[in-house]
Design a protein that fits this description.
Layout: E1 4-14, E2 21-32, E3 35-44, H1 59-90
Antiparallel strand pairs: 1-2, 2-3
Length: 111
């Protein structure tokens, strides 16, 4: 399977007077079922020349603002980082646990 990426916007901060959104909290989730990884962040936006009325905003518009803020190279780098995390889940370098012969797990000397 291939990895799918889903952007979500978790919060917007705006000026009450005119609806100018100056801060966006976002999350990007990568999924290759049953594996997944995500990263969250926040961006502070410069005031645009023309404001989109706050009630006309949608997740697609705001997600594009986030992507534009980072630029295509940084967005690709973020996605590559998530893909590496998923790859490590599929084939971990380190694992935790006991040998199966230790069931039930030894917890110490019992008198």
């Amino acid at each position: 399977m291939s990895i799918s990426y889903t952007w979500s916007i978790s919060d917007l901060k705006r000026q009450a007077e005119d609806g100018y959104v100056f801060s966006v909290n976002w999350t990007l989730e990568a999924s290759d079922i049953p594996y997944s990884s995500s990263i969250s962040g926040s961006v502070n936006l410069e005031r645009p020349d023309v404001l989109i009325p706050f009630e006309e905003l949608n997740p697609e518009i705001v997600t594009e603002w986030v992507k534009d803020y980072y630029g295509s190279e940084q967005v690709l780098s973020i996605k590559e980082s998530l893909a590496t995390k998923i790859s490590n889940q599929k084939s971990p370098d380190e694992v935790i646990g006991f040998p199966s012969s230790w069931i039930p797990a030894v917890t110490g000397d019992v008198d």
